[in-house]
């Protein structure tokens, strides 16, 4: 890979990683306590023997933010991979269902579905990906008279080496980044620019999160505590109660 291309990648990361941090803060600003309490399993947190309201709020908020951040950062890595493939192989965002990237290299037309990490999806989602690969391959062959279509599942991090699923090739971690760039060291080269202004962004995020935790804790104490202790019955009723008076007689 030319040095100019590496500089372009660093510039892309430094510019676009800001949107990831902005999205994290936007997620904080967009949630409310009751919506958060409805999304998480109260039995789990009771089983963890939590007694302090602020600890409960932090645990629930962290669980919510963790899944949200994985999705947000996965979207960013997908954009980065497409940008790199565009610079190296004139790759483009794919319009095919379930596909993220298409490019041609040495006579092969690659259809690529990109996942952030190795533990993605359930069995039904895996079967759907197989169907999407088959459908996209068939359409591409019919519309472009392209015989050599190569479906690839690209996973941005993980240790598993190249393998083959049902009708597609699976590339993980270093092998995936090498596949879209031709550079075997790119997977480590992108680490430094990912930290661009990270402390500044994280400090801002932590201040915003502290305000949310304090505000939610105050509201939670007023609504879901009795004698200054968490009222688990009241919390579970709010989270899962859905029967009207008389339902038992009608069942």
Topology, please?
Layout: H1 3-29, H2 33-39, H3 42-47, H4 53-89, E1 92-93, E2 101-105, E3 108-115, H5 123-144, E4 149-155, E5 163-164, E6 169-172, H6 174-181, H7 186-189, H8 191-194, H9 198-224, E7 225-226, E8 229-230, H10 232-240, H11 247-250
Parallel strand pairs: 3-4, 4-6
Antiparallel strand pairs: 1-2, 2-3, 5-6, 7-8
Helix pairs in contact: 1-4, 1-9, 4-9
Describe the structure.
The chain is an alpha/beta fold. The chain has one domain (3-250). Helices cover 62% and strands 13% of the residues. The protein is built from 11 helices and 8 strands. The strands form 2 sheets. The protein has a 6-stranded mixed β-sheet. The chain has a two-stranded antiparallel sheet with strand order 7-8. Helix 5 (123-144) links the parallel strand 3 and strand 4. The protein is elongated, with a radius of gyration of 23 Å. The chain starts with a helix and ends with a helix.
């Amino acid at each position: 890979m030319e040095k100019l291309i590496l500089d372009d990648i660093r510039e892309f990361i430094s510019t676009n990683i800001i949107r990831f941090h902005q999205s994290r803060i936007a997620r904080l600003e967009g949630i409310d306590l009751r919506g958060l309490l409805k999304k998480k399993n109260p039995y789990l947190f009771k089983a963890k023997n939590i007694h302090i309201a602020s600890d409960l709020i932090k645990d629930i908020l962290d669980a919510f933010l963790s899944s949200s951040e994985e999705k947000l950062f996965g979207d960013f890595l997908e954009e980065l991979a497409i940008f790199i493939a565009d610079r190296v192989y004139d790759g483009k965002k794919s319009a095919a269902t379930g596909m993220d990237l298409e490019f041609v290299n040495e006579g092969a037309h690659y259809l690529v579905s990109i996942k952030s990490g190795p533990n993605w999806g359930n069995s039904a989602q895996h079967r759907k990906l197989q169907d999407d690969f088959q459908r996209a391959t068939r359409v591409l062959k019919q519309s472009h008279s392209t015989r050599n279509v190569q479906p690839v599942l690209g996973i941005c991090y993980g240790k598993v080496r190249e393998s083959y699923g049902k009708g597609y090739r699976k590339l993980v971690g270093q092998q995936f980044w090498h596949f879209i760039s031709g550079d075997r060291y790119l997977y480590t080269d992108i680490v430094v620019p990912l930290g661009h202004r990270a402390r500044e962004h994280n400090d801002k995020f932590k201040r915003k999160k502290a305000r949310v935790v304090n505000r939610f804790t105050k509201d939670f104490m007023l609504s879901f505590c009795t004698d200054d202790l968490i009222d688990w019955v009241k919390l579970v009723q709010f989270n899962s109660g859905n029967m009207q008076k008389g339902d038992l007689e009608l069942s």
